[in-house]
User: What shape does this take?
Amino acid sequence: MESYKGKENMMGIAQPIIRKINDDPVALKEFEEELFSSSDEKVQEILAFFPTVYIHNWKDSGDYEVYIGESNHVFQRTRNRVQ
Assistant: This one.
């Protein structure tokens, strides 16, 4: 899992929090466990309880299919997409 933690730039503007995981139930479970066991509390709160934009992409027959969505419950929504 690649991880980019949000930080402030020189002007004090917060940077996005970006997580890249595989699109399967195991990766989602590992992401949730890692988030709630080792991330700082502010990151946990933002990813778990605030609206989140997510991108799913699948490679089908030589082309890529991309889905962009927004959810207030990103873990539940992602579980629905990967099942």
Remarks:
- The chain has a mean pLDDT of 78.
- The chain has three helices and four strands.
